[in-house]
Amino acid sequence: MVTIRPIHRALVPVDSDAARRVSARNYDEFQGDLEIWEAIREAPDSVLSVTMAHCAVVRPDRIMEGDSEAALRRARLNFDRLRASPLTREAGRVLFIYEIVDPGRPGVRQIGLGGLARTAEIRTEATPDGPIIRNEGVRPPKARGRARLIEATRAIIGTVNNAVPDESGTFARTLEGRVDGVAPDFAVEGTGGTAHRIWLVREPGALARLQRLLADEPEAYVADGNHRSAAAAMLGHESFLAVFFPADRMGIAPYNRLVRLPGESPEAVEAAVASALERSFAATLASGGEGPLQPETTHEIGVYTAEAGWRRAMPREEVLREEDASASIDHDIVQRTLFAELGIVEAGDERLTFVGANKDAAWLAAEVDAGRADCAVTLPAVTMRQFIAVCRQRRMMPPKSTWFEPKIRSGLVMVLLEDL
Are 235 and 150 in contact (CB under 8 A)? Predict the structure, then answer.
């Protein structure tokens, strides 16, 4: 049983135009501080000026340390300004229904229920039967950084994205029935032409019905936001901001890698990559004229070096571990074979850069050609079946292996912690 509670004091945009100005992509969708700085310059009213306040400066050379006291003071100032502006208002004791329509997935309505989830229901060593299942390790420094932002602003801005089984389809149908024919409280266009729509639910009877609806789900799987939930738990808060979507309505896009091997010539990089592939993969050069390679099939991997161009690589049977749901995922396979052979034993090695689906294979190859990376590795998207299997085996996903797409937007619903 999964519990959801209404938000006592929610901060929301006043209308759709305000939602367009206030909301933003999540901080982890950007490839570096400069890109964030540019986004804030383009949308100075956006919540990015709070969540990434260290980049809310007049010039790039003034970007601060992300966790510095100066950045946290600026986050508080910017949040107070946002809260007092005519762009936002408070809404009391609400749940919300969140729908995302993606033109890239015609006919799929990703619709979910949002509110406050319980930190006590997160499955940990102390709560081994918790119904909210994490599948990614939590790095304490990163969680602590999110916790310090919560403390500075006295608000929870980041939302945790969860999948629920909804095996009967009742969860999705009930939410659709609630909003069909009803105008959303506000809506905004997101990246890739996606539409994000929010309906606030206030009536006591409707709140109780929606709470019972989610309680019928036996478990939930954290799709995005492990560190956001960990930050709330670290501070001793009973709740964190969450949305629960039916698993079969969610999409997972590729999550790729760039590799740097400092001090190595392009020829040496190519020799090392070719040798590593020879040990664990059946690899062939992409045929002439074939464009950037983004695999779509499990156990098919793209590898790019400046010397050889694109290769298509298939893991040899002896490196597959199909009985282990996590080890059978291609992101784990390349880590313990290809990258380990290149001397990169840990997934957290700074020579690896994780690149989400908002950058395509052509962009990755261009980074190699420009000398900013030495090798690019493209991987097929993890399937929802693989993702759920890892959760049910109580294992951890390989780091940075699931890029859920479309992503929920930050700043559409926020939680004010006073009097919570």
Answer: yes
Residue spans of beta strands (DSSP E) within 321-384: 352-355, 375-378
Contact by Cβ (8 Å): 228, 240:
yes
Query: For residue 322, what are its two tokens?
Result: 């199909």
Chunked mean pLDDT (size 10), the chain, 420 residues: 97 98 89 92 96 95 90 96 97 97 92 97 90 85 92 95 96 97 97 95 97 97 90 94 96 95 95 96 82 93 95 93 92 96 93 92 96 97 93 89 91 84
Distance of alpha carbon 117 from alpha carbon 129, whole angstroms: 16
Largest CA distance in the chain: 68
pTM (whole model) above 0.85: yes
Helix (H) / strand (E) containing 75: helix 69-84
Distance CA 134, CA 95 (A): 23
Backbone angles phi, psi at 334, to 5 degrees: -70, -30
Phi-psi region of 234 (alpha: psi -120 to 50; beta: other; left: phi over 0): alpha
Query: Which pLDDT score, from 0 to 100, does residue 73 have?
Result: 96
C-alpha 291/C-alpha 70 separation (Å) is 46
Q: How far is CA 211 from each of CA 67, 109, 160, 411, rounded to the nearest angstrom? A: 36, 21, 17, 23
Burial tier of 109 (Cβ tally within 10 Å: 0-12, 13-18, 19+): middle
- Write out the H or E segment, with its range, that includes residue 244: strand 239-246
Return d(Cα 257, Cα 415) in angstroms, integer.
34
- Amino acid letter for position 96: F
Instruction: Output the pLDDT for position 367.
Output: 97
Residues 6+ apart with CB under 8 A from 234: 143, 144, 147
- pLDDT at position 44: 95
DSSP 125-174: SSSTT-SEE--S---HHHHHHHHHHHHHHTEE---EEEEE--TTSHHHHH
